[in-house]
Amino acid sequence: MDGCSQETENSSNKKNSYDQWTEQETDELLKLLVDATLEHRKDKSGAFSKKTVETRILPKLNRICQCNKTYENFKEKYRWFKNRLGQYQEMFKCSSGFVWNPDTKMIDGTDEMWDNYLE
């Protein structure tokens, strides 16, 4: 077991049925999505079909992380990924000086750029 069912990414209590995702589950899902994309598993509209998710992605995730994520869990996390991507795209679009640093695997910019962006 690689520890996929340990600490949660967001420890706040919620009254709905949202199943918390651990950092490891999130990382593994992202890897599986990248793999599925590289294997051309998206449909013509560029989305993952429910069948692909339920037959190719979730079984691997659940086996690797020893969890029981459902399609509904997947949809919520996928929305989270898309929202996060949109935030990064907006930052790069509006702030032309930001760059990706492959060594630190983080977004870099001058202090002045960060100050302007955060205003």
Automatic annotation (TrEMBL):
InterPro entries, alphabetized: At2g29880-like, Myb/SANT-like_dom
Region named Disordered: 1-20
UniProt domain Myb/SANT-like: residue ranges: 20-117
Protein name: Myb/SANT-like domain-containing protein
